Structures are given as C-alpha cells and as structure tokens.
C-alpha cells in the first residue's frame, strides 16, 4: 500500500448532514429564545390588521360597506383573510409555532433550573484578590460566625476548612422561567376561549326583545366545543335607548353618552331586573358578557296595498350613510302586497333642513325634525321567494332590480315625509305612511372561559419579568487564616457589576462589624 493510499484511509471521514441532523437543527432553531421573540413579535404584528381592518365577527356592516365602496380592495382583504384575522390560517400558524417554541424552551430550562437548585455553591478560590470585588481585614472571625452572618443576608452557604462559599439570586432564573410559563398560560387560555367560548352579534330595535339562543343571533360564531345547550338562558327587552349629543361649539353633534335601558331576566323563571347598558360597561350574566357596539335609527312605516289591506307595519333598521349627521339609508320590502309586491328606497333625516338647491339634508344627528325622503318606489317580483338569501339592506339583486317597475324615482319623489304623513303610489297600487321613529342598537355577546386565566397569566408574566430584570445572581467567598479574613465576590449576571459594588461593600461591613483595619 502506498503512502497516499494509507493517508487517504486514515484521514477522518466527513459526516453527512442527513435528515436527522436537519431535524435537530430545525428543533434547536425553533426552540431558541431568538425564535420565540421573533414569533412573539410576528403575533403582535399580525394583530395590527385585526385592529385597523373591520372584522366580520365584530363589524359586519362596515365590512359590507368596504365591499360596496371598494370591491377590488375588499376582495384582496378577503384573500389575505384580513376580515377574519384572529381565525385566519396564517395567524393560527404563528400561534402554534410560538406555542411549540415555548414548550421546547421551557422543558430544558426547567431541567437546568432544578439541577441548579440542587447544586451546592462551589468551594472558595484560593486567591480571592483576583475576583472583581475583594477586601480583607484583621479579625478573630470564625468560619461558623461568617456563615451565620451570610445566612442572615439570605445567602445559601457552604463551609469548608477555613473557607465559606455563599450564593444568592436564584429568583432571577425563577422569574425568567415563570415568565415563559406565563406566556404559555396566556396561549393556553386563548386556545381554551376559542374552543369553549362563543361570540354573536344581534341588532335589537326599541321595544323588541332578545333571548340568548342560536336562532336569535344575526351572526353567531361558536367554538368547536360549543353546542346550542352551552348558551346561558338569559333574555332581555330593550325598553329605551338614549344618546346625548353636544349641542353647541366646534364639536356640535358629537355623541357624549350612550345608554340602553334593558329589562333583563337571568333565567327563564327569574323576575326581570332593570339594567343600564353603556359603552365599555357590559352586562354580565354567569360569565356571558353583552357589549353595546353600535346604534342607529329605525323609522316606523305602514304600507297599505292596492286592495286597501295593511301589507306591512313596523320599524325598519336603516344603515348609517353619514356618521356626523346620522343620515341613513332604508329599504322597505313588502312581499305580501297585492296585486303586486312593493319595494321602497328611502333616506332618513334625523334633523331635516331644506337646502338652497331644493334638496333636503340632515343638520344634526339627534332626532329634532325627523323626516323621510322617498328615493324610489317599485312594484314587481322582488325575488324574496326564490330561495336565494338576500340582504335586508338591499332591495334586490341587480338583475332582479332591472325587471321591477319604477313607480316613483329621483326628482319625481315628493317632499320628505314628516311623522304622520303619507304618499300615495300611482296606479292605485297603495300608500306608504311614516308613523314614527325608533332606534336600534347592535350588541356583541361574548363568552370566553379563558378570560380570567389569561388575566392571571398576564399578571404573573409582569411580576416574573420584573424579578428577572431586578434580581442578579452573585457569589461571595470568605477565607479565614491566621486572624486575617479575605472576602471576594462576583456576579453571574452580565452588566450588573456596578450595582453589586455597593452591596459587596455592605457585606464586608457586616462581616467586619466590631473589627479593625478594614480596607
């Protein structure tokens, strides 16, 4: 065998970077502190669109407005799941990765922490003057006396032949560990809320009631483990809703206070109780919270058909078109009218005033001079019996609307109707009467069993991070030989040496109390 062949055979073989090595590398990367912080930042960053973009679960009417005003933008929002951020695929992926990263970070940290708790402080070095902090003095101090004094300062102490070793500051790592456990607790609480909690939205008009059943909601979003029997059986009636507005000044028309007066029955058999519902002051019944999130007007109309029969009578919730004046758009569908179905497009003006061009507008959001302007009246098949779902805020789909017969349109519409006034439809097809004004409120019902655990975990995280930032690990060593005492100290926390200098000086003073020649 040649020398070259021998060297080639004896040379170390390079190991391949196989599947197992890649898996180990991926796991170490995922469970590192750097990755956990990045994922936590991404989770916070991902929550931003949930605050800026209207969410279907909270503000479905605003989502509908975006679809009307910017269909292309709304389509992109929907593709990126920005209307449902907190239930989106990408948000769940970041959440699960952070969850896994924290578990992988906590387990080895816990094992290391337990080993550190069982480990005794190391023996004192022979030359204490080489430590970052050192001092010496003449004294008859014994090893047992030095150990007793350090124990009074809450040090863990180990003694040997002529030396004392003491250590303190384990609460720093305790706080660090509890901080990670608390973060995991927050994630678990959020997950429990998603599985066993539910949210729902409902619109209620003055005088109407609501019972906490699935069928009563306009939109209901249950967790995976929620059934119809899971809902608390409470109910209420909206007696009155009031809004206080600024009457003068630069902020005239700005809402000052919202107040909904409810009569609440906590159970089907309990007596009703009065409750005043306000913004950020939810009604709570056995853990279920009811929030006031919106309001508007619901003019009351009476429609008489061509045969003289009352085909429709009641309040019609209107969508707000202009928030500053509460100008609202209303749609009235009368599928039971004879001899043909009727539909109306109207605009509600809470404080109607005439304009110089002959039109009318609202000058104030409060109900000072309520009037209704008829924008259009139609007859024909509205398509409500076609089996296709329709919005109550739209008269009909475009293809159906083209087939309707216009009865009153645009400039042909009469002067706005005041309460008690009516308008006759042409060809004897009926009459529309404006009979009164009510208000509606939108409510969000929320049941989240993880709410209190999340609060507890968040509070623990704050206390724990304070401990890990304020407490430093440090060691103190004492050597006693021939009436001379040497003291040395060092910190095990980076960047805390300056803070330890004063503490070390105090420790030396305690050890040398009543002695001489301290330096």
Automatic annotation (TrEMBL):
Q: How does it sit in the membrane?
A: Multi-pass membrane protein
Where it sits in the cell: the answer is: Membrane
Keywords attached to this Swiss-Prot or TrEMBL record, sorted alphabetically, are:
Cytochrome c-type biogenesis, Membrane, Transmembrane, Transmembrane helix
Membrane-spanning ranges:
36-53, 90-111, 177-198, 452-471
Principal cellular location given in the protein's record: membrane
Q: Where is the ResB-like domain?
A: 33-504
Q: Does the keyword Hydrolase apply?
A: no
Any keyword RNA-binding? no
Supply the name of the protein. Cytochrome c biogenesis protein ResB
